[in-house]
Amino acid sequence: MGALKLVKATHPLLKKHIKQVETFDQQLKDYLADLEDTLYQEGGQAIAAPQVGIDQQIAIVDMGPDGLLQLINPDIVATSDETQEDVEGSISQPDVFGIVERPQMIKVKSFDVNGREVELTAYDDIARMILHVCDHFNGILFTDKMKREITEEELEALLEDE
């Protein structure tokens, strides 16, 4: 167990519909632990199983002080009409950043590690990260939704403004 190797951005798994988890067992718990280790090793904020070559709808989102959110078979059931454009990047494409428009608020149904359904409402950055990882389950990369790519200089300027 431990950190897993990221697949290349051109890996076919990143462009296909990913299978739902059907068995909530020790292997699922191991995948979640490995994804967590990989997320921290890569310095990311979110990770989806296809990014490490696993054809399962499993993801982790780092919600900062609120801890880690585990998503298993997530389903976006509602989104706000209000949208927001912001910078996105991906550990699958470490040198690419771009402006992506996404809803500011979402409601998502998912399952916990024991197979119990959970529902949550997320806003702003957390909503953005959940939508980003859910796109991975449908073969969509953030670059497919990107309005425009930004340069490293633009990224640095945006980060300085925060």
From TrEMBL:
| PANTHER family to which the protein is assigned, alphabetical | PEPTIDE DEFORMYLASE (PTHR10458)
Provide the GO MF annotations for this entry.
peptide deformylase activity
What Gene3D superfamilies would the database entry show?
A: Peptide deformylase
- Return the protein name: Peptide deformylase-like
UniProt xrefs under NCBIfam families = pept_deformyl
Transcription regulation is among the record's keywords: no
> CDD domains attached here?
Pep_deformylase
Q: Which organism is it from?
A: Staphylococcus massiliensis S46
What does the similarity note say?
Belongs to the polypeptide deformylase family.
Lineage of the organism: Bacteria, Bacillati, Bacillota, Bacilli, Bacillales
